[in-house]
Amino acid sequence: MIHNASVEKYRTPVGAVTCGSEMMIRLYDVGQEVNKAEIIMYSESFHREYEMKRKKDCMEEHIKMTSEAGVVWYYFRIWEHGKCYFYGARHGKTQGEGMIVDDNPDSFQITVYEENFDTPRWMSKGIMYQIFPDRFCQGNKENMKRGKAYHESMGRTVYLHDDWEEQPVFGPLPGKEFYDPCDYFGGDIEGIISKLDDLKRLGISCIYLNPIGEAASNHRYNTSDYKKVDPFLGNNEDFKRLCQLAKERRIHVILDGVYSHTGDDSVYFNKKGNYEEPGAYQGEDSKYYDWYDFNEDGTYKSWWGFETLPEVNELNEKFVDYIITGEDSVIKHWLKLGASGFRLDVADELPDEFIFRLRSELKKKFKNYALIGEVWEDVTTKESYGTKRKYALGKGLDSAMNYPLKVNVTDYLLGNQSAKDMKTFLISQQCNYPKPLYYALMNLLSSHDIPRIRTTLATGMNENLPSREQQAEYVITSKMDQKGKALTRLAMAVQFFVPGMPCIYYGDEYGMHGLMDPFNRGAFFENDKETYQEVLRLTSLRNREKVLQTGYALYMAPTENVLAILRFISEKKDVFGEASENKAILLLVNPTMKKEEINLDLNKVKEGVNENALQALLKNLSNAVIKTNVAPIDYKVIEL
C-alpha cells in the first residue's frame, strides 16, 4: 500500500491549493483483501470521512477543498477482514511517502489559501541586501556629533567608537552594571547612499534596513518615535533622498516595522519624562494610555518581561489608527517618503487581524508594496499564544524570513543530515507553502539575530553557542576560516537556486565573520575579495536567468551526499503562467571531501513537481540521464 503526498500520481494536484479547489487522492497497491479504505480529513473547523472507490489499480476519492483558508490534514483508515489499521505520514513529515501503523497515525498536510492571493513579482525576481544601519557605512561625520548631542541631552548613555574596525561593545561599560547596546560606529543614511552604485553592481534590487526610527539604542528595536529618523542616521529628508536615488537604480527599500512594543523612553510611553507631551506612563490623560496594559500597582505588561519594552495592545483602535489606518499613519508616512514595504518584527506575536489590516491598507496604496514577516518556524503551521496562525494564507504576509532554510542548509553542509534529508525538507516547503508566498520567501543565511554563515560553517556551531564573553575570545583559525569559506560558497549556491528572494546580510559577500549579537553586527569591511567574486557570479546568474526566478523547481538526491536542484521552464510558461523561454539549469552540490560520481535519470523523478511541465521538458531534452562528477566541496552548474 502506497501513498506519496508529494507525487501527482497519488495526489492531484500536489502542493498547496486555493480555496474551493478540487483534488484527487489515491492509494496504490491496495490488495483485494482490503474491504474498505477511508480518508479521514480534518481541520480546526471540520472533521470528515470519505469512503474511497476502488479502481483497476488503486483506490481513490475526489474531494473539494474547503472554502475557508487554513491547513487541512488527512490520513487513511483501512479495513481488512474485519481488522482496522491506518496509513499515515511518516513521523515528523507532512509530505512524501507514508507508512502503515496500528494506531495514532500522523497526518499529511494540505495548505488551502485564498484564491486571489498574489505577491509582488519583483520579490520572486529580486535579490535583497540587509543592512544594520549603524555598521554599514559612514557618509556624514556630523550625524555622529548630532546624534551624540541629542541622545545625551535625553540623559542616554552614548559610547562612540574611534576606530571603524573595533569590536562592538558586548559587556557593561565601565561603571555600569549591565550591558547596554549604546555604542555607535557612525553608519548613516548618507553612507548607504554612497554605496548604492556598489550594491547595484552586486545585482541588488532590494535593501532591507533594520530600524531607522529614533530610539535609545544602536539596534533601535526600542522605538522612541515611529515617524522620525534617528539623528545618528540623519533625517527624514535623507531617507527620502535614499529612496529616490535607489528607485533610479531600480532598487526597492524595505523598512523594519516594530509594532509589538515601543521603548519606555519614547514619545508614547515617556517613562523618563524626556518628551514634552504626556506619555502613557504619565497617566490616563495621555492619548497613548490605551495603547498599553497597566496593573493597579502601576506596573505594566512588557515584551518578554523587559521593562524597557512596554508591550502595546495591537488591536486598540487608537494604535491601529496611528500605525495603519490614519491619514498620516506610520506606514503611510514612510510610503510617502519612498519605502516599498515593511518587514514585521516578531510577526508571530502580532495578532492576525492586525497583520490583515496592515496588508489591506498597504495593498490599497499599491499592490506591489511588500509585507514580510519575521517567523522562525514553518510559516503555515505556526502556533502562538494558543492560536493557529493564518497570516501566510493570503490575507496577511507576502513573504517570511526563511530561517528553516538556513538551519537545514547548514546542517546538510556540516554533515548533520544527508542529501536525502535536505531534499525532503525542500520538497516539504515547496508543497506546504502557498505558491505566491513560496516564490517570494526571504531566503537568508545570516541576519542580525543569528551568527554569520561563514562563522557557522567554520566553527560547526549551528545552534548551540557559548556565552558572550567566550564568543568575544573565540579564535577562528585560518584552517577553520578556509573551511567556512568553501562551504559558504555551496550554501550561497543553494540559496540562489531555490525559489524566493535570496538575501545577503551586509558583509557576507566579503566573508565577514560574527557569532551572535552583537558580534554579528560588526562594522562592514571587505574581508575576502575572492568571496565577493563568487557572490557576484551567483547574483549575475540569478539576474540573468528567468528560470532561476520564476521557473519550476525539482529537488533530488542522486547520492547520499549530493543535492541536486533542477530549475526549468517548459511549454514557454513559468510557474505563474507568464510567457518565458524554455530553459533548464541543474545545480549539483557536493559538501564532502571526496569526488562524487553522478548518474541522475530525470525520468525517474516525480516528487513535488508539476508532472505535465516536467514531461514537456523531458520531451525536449536530448538526454534525460546526466552522468558527471562533482569535485570535493564544490558545486557544478549544468545547462541542459
Automatic annotation (TrEMBL):
One of its GO terms (molecular function) is hydrolase activity. The keyword Transferase does not apply. Residues 130-542 form the Glycosyl hydrolase family 13 catalytic domain. Pfam families: Alpha-amylase. Keywords: Glycosidase, Hydrolase. Belongs to the glycosyl hydrolase 13 family. This is Glycoside hydrolase family 13 protein. It comes from Anaerostipes hadrus. The lineage of its organism: Bacteria, Bacillati, Bacillota, Clostridia, Lachnospirales.
